[in-house]
C-alpha cells in the first residue's frame, strides 16, 4: 500500500515510512557519503557499489590479460546492443531496436536526421521540426545545427518551430510539420508531457515523433511501444546511475528499422565493419545507429546501474517517487511559507517527473549554502533550485531533513554570506 502522506508530519513519522518502504533495501546498493542528502541524481546518479568490481574486472582481467582478444572473448563488441536491449526493456521498446552509444546530443542528431530522412521520402513537402522552447538546450542546438547544415529555411531547407505546452503544440502541427521532438520530462520544471496523447497528436498531423527520455529512463514509467513512438534517445548517467559521461541510447521503432538511416555513417554502423570495404553499407537494424569505437570501460560500469534499474518494480518506483516529490512540495510550502519560493513543478501528479523545482530570487546562493550543509541539489538559470528524488536511494527522512536544512538557510539568512555568490564552471 502506498504511504499515506497525511501521516508524515514529523521526522519520526518519516523514519517509520522509510522502515516500511519496500524499496528501502536499494539504498545499500549505492555508495553515498555519510551525512549527505543527495538530491541531484537527475544530473549525475550515485555510484552503484558493484560498479567498482566491474571496472576492476574490465581493467585487469579483460583489458590487462586478454588485451585485444576481449572484443570477442569478453563480448565487448556486443555491449552496445546487449545493454541497448536492457534499456529498451526499461522503456517499453521491445527487443532489437535500441543501442547504448555516444552522447544524447549525438543521438538527437542521428534520430532527428533519420526521422527527417523518412519524411523526405514519404512527405517531402514537410519542412518543419517542432520542439519546445523550454527544451534542454543541447536538443535545440543539435536541431539548429542539423537544419543550418542543410541550408536552413532560406535555402528551402528546414525550419525549427518552438512551442510552449500541448495547446500550442496542437496549433503548430500544420501540414508542414515533419517531426515533433520533445523531452518527456522537462529538465528545469519537471513537467511531463502526456506521451501517448502527444504522440497521437503528432501522428494525426502526419509528423513523426522523437522523444528524449533523459529525465525519464529509470525515473518514471515509459512505454514507447504503447505510445507508438517513432524514435527515442536518452542518457544513462542520471536516474540510471551509469556514471559520469556514460554512453547514452537511441531507440528506433520496429516499423522504421529496415529503412531508418542516420547521417553519421561511421564504420561501427557498417554492415561488415571488419571487411574494411570501400563504400559504406548500413548495418542490420539498429546497429547502423552506431558510429565508432565504444568507450568500453564506461559502458561496462554503466550496465551495473541499468541492471539495478531493471530489477525494480516500476509501479513501486513511481509510487515512491510521487510520494517523495509530493511530500517535499507540501513540507516546503507549509514550513517555509514566509519565504519567496515559487513552485514551478506541476502539482498534478500525472504531469510531474521525479524532481521538484522552486524559484527563489537568490536561488544560486541558497543552493550553494544548502550544498555546503550536505543537501545536494542544483541550480539552473533563472533562479531555479532543483531537487531530484531518485527513489532508489532517497528516503522520507532525507526529504524531511532537506526541508529543515533549507528552512535554516533561509530563516537565518545563511545564504547572504559573500562566499555563496561565487560561481564555478558547472552549476
Ligand atoms: C541531460 C540531458 C542531455 C545531456 O546531453 P549530453 O549529450 O549527454 O551532454 C540532453 N538532453 C536532455 C533533455 C537532458 O536532460
List the helices and strands and how they pair.
Blueprint (H helix, E strand, L loop, with lengths): L10 H9 L10 E2 L5 E2 L8 E2 H18 L3 H4 L5 H12 L7 E3 L3 H19 L5 E5 L4 H13 L9 E5 L1 H8 L4 E7 L11 H10 L3 E5 L11 H4 L3 E4 L14 E4 L43 H15 L3 H22 L6 E2 L11 E5 L3 H10 L2 E2 L1 E3 L3 E5 L7 H16 L16
Parallel strand pairs: 2-13, 5-6, 5-7, 7-8, 8-9
Antiparallel strand pairs: 1-3, 4-10, 9-10, 11-12, 12-15, 14-15
Bound molecules: pyridoxal-5'-phosphate.
Q: Which structural traits does this protein have?
A:
427 residues; Aspartate Aminotransferase, domain 2; 2 domains; 7-stranded mixed β-sheet; 4-stranded antiparallel β-sheet; 13 helices; 15 strands; 37% helix; globular
Note down, in words, how this protein is organized.
The strands form four sheets. A seven-stranded mixed sheet has the order 4-10-9-8-7-5-6, sandwiched between helices. The chain has a four-stranded antiparallel sheet with strand order 11-12-15-14, with helices on one face. A two-stranded antiparallel ribbon has the order 1-3. It has helices spanning 11-19, 49-66, 70-73, 79-90, 104-122, 137-149, 165-172, 195-204, 224-227, 296-310, 314-335, 363-372, 396-411, and strands spanning 30-31, 37-38, 47-48, 98-100, 128-132, 159-163, 177-183, 208-212, 231-234, 249-252, 342-343, 355-359, 375-376, 378-380, 384-388. The protein is an alpha/beta fold and 427 residues long. The protein is globular and about 70 Å long. The protein is built from 13 helices and 15 strands. It folds into two domains: 5-31 and 313-418, Aspartate Aminotransferase, domain 1, CATH 3.90.1150; 55-310, Aspartate Aminotransferase, domain 2 (3-Layer(aba) Sandwich). α1 (11-19) packs antiparallel against α13 (396-411), α4 packs parallel to α10 and α11 packs parallel to α13. The two termini are 38 Å apart. The chain binds pyridoxal-5'-phosphate.
Amino acid at each position: 500500500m502506498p504511504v499515506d502522506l497525511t501521516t508524515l508530519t514529523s521526522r519520526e513519522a518519516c523514519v517509520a515510512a522509510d522502515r516500511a518502504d519496500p524499496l528501502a533495501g536499494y539504498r545499500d546498493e549505492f555508495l553515498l557519503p555519510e551525512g549527505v542528502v543527495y538530491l541531484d541524481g537527475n544530473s549525475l546518479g550515485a555510484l552503484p557499489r558493484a560498479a567498482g568490481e566491474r571496472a576492476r574486472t574490465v581493467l585487469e582481467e579483460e583489458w590487462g590479460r586478454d588485451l585485444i582478444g576481449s572484443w570477442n572473448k569478453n563480448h565487448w563488441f556486443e555491449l552496445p546492443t546487449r545493454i541497448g536491449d536492457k534499456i529498451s526493456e526499461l522503456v517499453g521498446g521491445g527487443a532489437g531496436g535500441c543501442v547504448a552509444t555516444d552522447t544524447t546530443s549525438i543521438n538527437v542528431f542521428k534520430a532527428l536526421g533519420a526521422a527527417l530522412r523518412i519524411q523526405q521520402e514519404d512527405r517531402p513537402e514537410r519542412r518543419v521540426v517542432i520542439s519546445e522552447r523550454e527544451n534542454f538546450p543541447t536538443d535545440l542546438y543539435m536541431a539548429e545545427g542539423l537544419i543550418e547544415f542543410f541550408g536552413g529555411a532560406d535555402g528551402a531547407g528546414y525550419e525549427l518551430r518552438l512551442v510552449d505546452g500541448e495547446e500550442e503544440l496542437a496549433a503548430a502541427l500544420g501540414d508542414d510539420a515533419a517531426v515533433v521532438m520533445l523531452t518527456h520530462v522537462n529538465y528545469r520544471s519537471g513537467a511531463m508531457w502526456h506521451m501517448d496523447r502527444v504522440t497521437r497528436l503528432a501522428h494525426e498531423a502526419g509528423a513523426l515523433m522523437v522523444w528524449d527520455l533523459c529525465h525519464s529512463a529509470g525515473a518514471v514509467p515509459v512505454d514507447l511501444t504503447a505510445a507508438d513512438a517513432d524514435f527515442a534517445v536518452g542518457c544513462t548517467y542520471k536516474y540510471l546511475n551509469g556514471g559520469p559521461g556514460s554512453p547514452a541510447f537511441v531507440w528506433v521503432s520496429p516499423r522504421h528499422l529496415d529503412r531508418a538511416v542516420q547521417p553519421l555513417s561511421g564504420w561501427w554502423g557498417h554492415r561488415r565493419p571488419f571487411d574494411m570495404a570501400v563504400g559504406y553499407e548500413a548495418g542490420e537494424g539498429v546497429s547502423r545507429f552506431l558510429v565508432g569505437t565504444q568507450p568500453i570501460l564506461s559502458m561496462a560500469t554503466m550496465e551495473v546501474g541499468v541492471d539495478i534499474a531493471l530489477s525494480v518494480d516500476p509501479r513501486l518506483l513511481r509510487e515512491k517517487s510521487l510520494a517523495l516529490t509530493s511530500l517535499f512540495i507540501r513540507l516546503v510550502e507549509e514550513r517555509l511559507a514566509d519565504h519567496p519560493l515559487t513552485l514551478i513543478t506541476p502539482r498534478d501528479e500525472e504531469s510531474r517527473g521525479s524532481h521538484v523545482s522552486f524559484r527563489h530570487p537568490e536561488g544560486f546562493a541558497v543552493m550553494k549554502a544548502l550544498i555546503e550543509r550536505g543537501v545536494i541539489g542544483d541550480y539552473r538559470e533563472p533562479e531555479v533550485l532543483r531537487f531530484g528524488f531518485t527513489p532508489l536511494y532517497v528516503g522520507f527522512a532525507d526529504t524531511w531533513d532537506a526541508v529543515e536544512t533549507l528552512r535554516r538557510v533561509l530563516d537565518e539568512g545563511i545564504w547572504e554570506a559573500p562566499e555563496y555568490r561565487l560561481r564555478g564552471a558547472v552549476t
